[in-house]
């Protein structure tokens, strides 16, 4: 790497890597190779690997610790577009904003509250039409979203980790969904919530529903699972004002509660 004048001042440039590690995972096993050829630039290495594996897409770009030291324009020039961007602890709020500006066309976005000033995800980000929006940094960071902010989300698949929202607020969210909020949502998953198993009744209080046993199995395919459908065992069915059905499931694994909501759009229904 070297330092040069890049976007917004002096930034590191992407140059010829000293070492390239290639991990190949397949049904036959995993292999790892270390390649050294300093004459190739980062962009040449990328093209070389794309030619070898006959795969042109960049599945995702992960901006991790200290990535803010690099020139965002240089990163965009080398890697081009990607379907998914993961914004981790880059070390700079302004850099995180530049990531969103340069990769505004991504279909999938993973973010944490700590990626933004005052640990608050901007409403303009929540309102974008993502296929997939993940919020949270595993269970090590609390995710604080108000009910109004949750209602702003316009993504198809919504995954929220460690959400600090009460059973009463979740009950309000479901009722508002029944009235027409979050119309694009296909799948909602809330993991490591503060609600407890006893809160199940509070979450569905006042909501007309039908309970199905665990041996009643349906297949669901959301935008994230376009190849392999998921088996939905049992659950609590509710209906939106326009007749759209959804299934709510409560899961408790390793003492961490989770709530899932599946919306049965026609393209999500998989015939058995």
From TrEMBL:
Designated name of the protein: Sdz-33 F-box domain-containing protein
Species lineage: Eukaryota, Metazoa, Ecdysozoa, Nematoda, Chromadorea
Pfam family, one: FBA_2
Domain of life where this protein originates: Eukaryota
InterPro entries xref list: F-box_Sdz-33, Zygotic_Embryogenesis-Asso
Ranges where the Sdz-33 F-box domain occurs: 124-190
């Amino acid at each position: 790497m070297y330092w040069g004048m890049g976007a917004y001042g002096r930034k590191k440039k992407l140059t010829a890597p000293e070492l390239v590690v290639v991990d190949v995972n397949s049904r036959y096993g995993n292999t790892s190779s270390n390649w050294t050829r300093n004459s190739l630039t980062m962009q040449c290495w990328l093209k070389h690997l794309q030619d070898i594996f006959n795969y042109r897409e960049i599945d995702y770009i992960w901006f991790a610790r200290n990535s803010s030291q690099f020139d965002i324009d240089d990163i965009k020039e080398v890697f081009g577009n990607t379907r998914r961007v993961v914004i981790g602890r880059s070390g700079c709020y302004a850099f995180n904003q530049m990531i969103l500006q340069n990769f505004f066309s991504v279909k999938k976005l993973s973010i944490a509250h700590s990626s933004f000033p005052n640990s608050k995800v901007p409403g303009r980000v929540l309102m974008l039409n993502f296929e997939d929006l993940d919020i949270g940094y595993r269970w090590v960071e609390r995710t604080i979203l108000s009910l109004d902010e949750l209602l702003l989300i316009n993504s198809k698949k919504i995954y929220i980790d460690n959400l600090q929202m009460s059973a009463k607020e979740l009950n309000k969210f479901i009722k508002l969904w029944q009235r027409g909020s979050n119309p694009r949502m296909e799948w909602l998953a809330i993991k490591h919530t503060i609600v407890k198993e006893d809160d199940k009744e509070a979450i569905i209080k006042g909501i007309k529903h039908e309970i199905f046993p665990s041996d009643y199995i349906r297949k669901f395919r959301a935008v994230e699972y376009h190849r392999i459908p998921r088996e939905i065992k049992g659950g609590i069915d509710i209906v939106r004002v326009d007749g759209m059905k959804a299934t709510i499931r409560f899961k408790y694994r390793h003492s961490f509660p989770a709530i899932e909501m599946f919306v049965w759009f026609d393209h999500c229904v998989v015939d058995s």
